[in-house]
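Lecture notes, unit on protein representations.

Consider one protein chain, 170 amino acids long.
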Amino acid sequence: MEDYGPTTFEAEPPRRSWWSRNWLWAVPVGCLAMVLGCGGCCLGVFGTALYALKSSPPYQMALEKVRTSPQVIEELGEPIEEAGWFPTGNVNVKNGGGDALLDFDVAGPKGRAHVQARARRINGEWGLTTVEVTLADGKRIPLELEGEVGVEEAPRWNPEAEKVSGPEKE
Protein backbone atom coordinates (compact mmCIF):
# COMPACT_ATOMS: atom_id res chain seq x y z
CA MET A 1 0.00 0.00 0.00
CA GLU A 2 1.22 3.36 -0.87
CA ASP A 3 1.30 6.21 1.51
CA TYR A 4 0.10 9.43 -0.01
CA GLY A 5 0.77 11.47 3.05
CA PRO A 6 -1.62 13.40 5.18
CA THR A 7 -4.81 14.44 3.46
CA THR A 8 -5.44 18.18 3.56
CA PHE A 9 -8.57 19.90 2.39
CA GLU A 10 -8.43 23.51 1.46
CA ALA A 11 -11.46 25.53 2.47
CA GLU A 12 -13.52 27.02 -0.34
CA PRO A 13 -13.76 30.79 -0.27
CA PRO A 14 -17.10 31.97 1.12
CA ARG A 15 -19.75 32.49 -1.55
CA ARG A 16 -20.48 36.16 -2.25
CA SER A 17 -23.97 37.51 -1.53
CA TRP A 18 -26.63 37.91 -4.21
CA TRP A 19 -26.25 41.70 -4.12
CA SER A 20 -22.49 41.66 -4.57
CA ARG A 21 -22.86 39.33 -7.56
CA ASN A 22 -25.78 41.15 -9.27
CA TRP A 23 -25.70 44.84 -8.35
CA LEU A 24 -24.27 45.86 -11.70
CA TRP A 25 -27.49 45.04 -13.56
CA ALA A 26 -29.95 45.33 -10.64
CA VAL A 27 -29.35 49.06 -10.05
CA PRO A 28 -30.07 50.21 -13.64
CA VAL A 29 -33.06 47.87 -13.96
CA GLY A 30 -34.49 49.13 -10.65
CA CYS A 31 -34.05 52.78 -11.68
CA LEU A 32 -35.63 52.11 -15.06
CA ALA A 33 -38.58 50.37 -13.41
CA MET A 34 -39.18 53.37 -11.11
CA VAL A 35 -38.98 55.86 -14.00
CA LEU A 36 -41.35 53.79 -16.15
CA GLY A 37 -43.75 53.33 -13.24
CA CYS A 38 -43.91 57.06 -12.50
CA GLY A 39 -44.25 57.88 -16.20
CA GLY A 40 -47.04 55.34 -16.56
CA CYS A 41 -48.92 56.82 -13.62
CA CYS A 42 -48.60 60.34 -15.02
CA LEU A 43 -49.76 59.22 -18.47
CA GLY A 44 -52.69 57.41 -16.88
CA VAL A 45 -53.84 60.52 -15.02
CA PHE A 46 -53.34 62.72 -18.10
CA GLY A 47 -55.15 60.25 -20.37
CA THR A 48 -58.09 60.01 -17.99
CA ALA A 49 -58.43 63.81 -17.83
CA LEU A 50 -58.15 64.09 -21.61
CA TYR A 51 -60.78 61.40 -22.13
CA ALA A 52 -63.12 63.07 -19.63
CA LEU A 53 -62.82 66.44 -21.40
CA LYS A 54 -63.25 65.04 -24.92
CA SER A 55 -66.24 62.91 -23.95
CA SER A 56 -68.02 65.69 -22.05
CA PRO A 57 -71.39 66.81 -23.44
CA PRO A 58 -70.29 70.45 -23.97
CA TYR A 59 -67.27 69.37 -26.03
CA GLN A 60 -69.34 66.98 -28.13
CA MET A 61 -72.06 69.61 -28.66
CA ALA A 62 -69.54 72.27 -29.71
CA LEU A 63 -67.73 69.92 -32.09
CA GLU A 64 -71.02 68.87 -33.68
CA LYS A 65 -72.07 72.53 -34.03
CA VAL A 66 -68.80 73.33 -35.81
CA ARG A 67 -69.06 70.28 -38.08
CA THR A 68 -72.58 71.21 -39.21
CA SER A 69 -72.10 74.98 -39.58
CA PRO A 70 -72.45 76.10 -43.22
CA GLN A 71 -70.05 79.04 -42.66
CA VAL A 72 -67.33 76.79 -41.23
CA ILE A 73 -67.85 74.14 -43.91
CA GLU A 74 -67.46 76.85 -46.57
CA GLU A 75 -64.15 78.00 -45.06
CA LEU A 76 -62.62 74.64 -44.05
CA GLY A 77 -64.35 72.14 -46.35
CA GLU A 78 -65.70 68.74 -45.36
CA PRO A 79 -65.09 66.60 -43.39
CA ILE A 80 -64.18 68.71 -40.38
CA GLU A 81 -62.19 66.73 -37.81
CA GLU A 82 -60.49 67.38 -34.50
CA ALA A 83 -57.00 68.68 -35.27
CA GLY A 84 -55.27 68.35 -31.94
CA TRP A 85 -54.78 65.76 -29.26
CA PHE A 86 -55.09 68.21 -26.41
CA PRO A 87 -58.18 70.34 -26.03
CA THR A 88 -57.93 72.75 -23.13
CA GLY A 89 -60.50 74.17 -20.80
CA ASN A 90 -62.61 73.05 -17.91
CA VAL A 91 -65.99 71.60 -17.17
CA ASN A 92 -67.50 72.36 -13.76
CA VAL A 93 -70.58 70.53 -12.52
CA LYS A 94 -72.34 71.08 -9.21
CA ASN A 95 -75.74 69.57 -8.49
CA GLY A 96 -77.94 70.36 -11.52
CA GLY A 97 -75.86 73.30 -12.72
CA GLY A 98 -72.46 73.97 -14.12
CA ASP A 99 -70.42 75.69 -16.76
CA ALA A 100 -67.74 74.86 -19.29
CA LEU A 101 -65.08 76.75 -21.21
CA LEU A 102 -63.40 74.77 -23.98
CA ASP A 103 -60.69 75.53 -26.53
CA PHE A 104 -59.78 73.09 -29.29
CA ASP A 105 -58.61 72.98 -32.89
CA VAL A 106 -60.36 71.61 -35.95
CA ALA A 107 -59.20 71.03 -39.50
CA GLY A 108 -60.74 70.46 -42.88
CA PRO A 109 -59.33 69.96 -46.37
CA LYS A 110 -59.00 73.74 -46.86
CA GLY A 111 -57.37 74.66 -43.54
CA ARG A 112 -57.37 74.74 -39.77
CA ALA A 113 -59.24 76.77 -37.17
CA HIS A 114 -59.41 77.31 -33.42
CA VAL A 115 -62.71 76.89 -31.59
CA GLN A 116 -63.68 78.52 -28.31
CA ALA A 117 -66.93 77.37 -26.76
CA ARG A 118 -68.79 78.22 -23.59
CA ALA A 119 -71.68 76.25 -22.16
CA ARG A 120 -73.95 76.31 -19.12
CA ARG A 121 -75.76 73.50 -17.38
CA ILE A 122 -79.16 74.41 -15.96
CA ASN A 123 -81.39 71.81 -14.31
CA GLY A 124 -79.17 69.03 -15.62
CA GLU A 125 -79.33 70.17 -19.27
CA TRP A 126 -76.25 71.45 -21.09
CA GLY A 127 -76.62 74.34 -23.51
CA LEU A 128 -74.02 76.18 -25.54
CA THR A 129 -73.89 79.92 -24.86
CA THR A 130 -71.20 80.79 -27.42
CA VAL A 131 -69.19 79.00 -30.05
CA GLU A 132 -66.66 81.05 -31.97
CA VAL A 133 -64.39 79.72 -34.71
CA THR A 134 -61.18 81.63 -35.46
CA LEU A 135 -59.64 80.79 -38.83
CA ALA A 136 -55.89 80.73 -39.49
CA ASP A 137 -56.09 84.19 -41.13
CA GLY A 138 -57.69 85.65 -37.97
CA LYS A 139 -61.23 85.83 -39.32
CA ARG A 140 -63.79 85.04 -36.61
CA ILE A 141 -67.03 83.19 -37.20
CA PRO A 142 -69.52 83.34 -34.30
CA LEU A 143 -71.96 80.47 -34.69
CA GLU A 144 -75.70 80.96 -34.25
CA LEU A 145 -77.09 79.02 -31.31
CA GLU A 146 -80.80 79.75 -31.53
CA GLY A 147 -82.89 76.74 -30.60
CA GLU A 148 -80.14 75.10 -28.53
CA VAL A 149 -81.19 73.62 -25.20
CA GLY A 150 -80.53 76.05 -22.36
CA VAL A 151 -79.59 79.00 -24.57
CA GLU A 152 -82.59 81.10 -23.55
CA GLU A 153 -81.87 80.69 -19.83
CA ALA A 154 -78.09 81.00 -20.05
CA PRO A 155 -76.68 84.52 -20.14
CA ARG A 156 -74.93 85.40 -23.40
CA TRP A 157 -71.19 85.74 -23.15
CA ASN A 158 -69.76 89.03 -24.26
CA PRO A 159 -65.95 88.88 -24.53
CA GLU A 160 -65.69 92.67 -24.79
CA ALA A 161 -67.54 93.10 -21.48
CA GLU A 162 -65.07 90.77 -19.76
CA LYS A 163 -62.12 92.82 -21.02
CA VAL A 164 -63.63 96.12 -19.88
CA SER A 165 -64.93 95.04 -16.50
CA GLY A 166 -62.17 93.77 -14.30
CA PRO A 167 -61.97 93.37 -10.57
CA GLU A 168 -63.41 96.37 -8.80
CA LYS A 169 -60.88 98.47 -6.94
CA GLU A 170 -61.73 100.42 -3.85
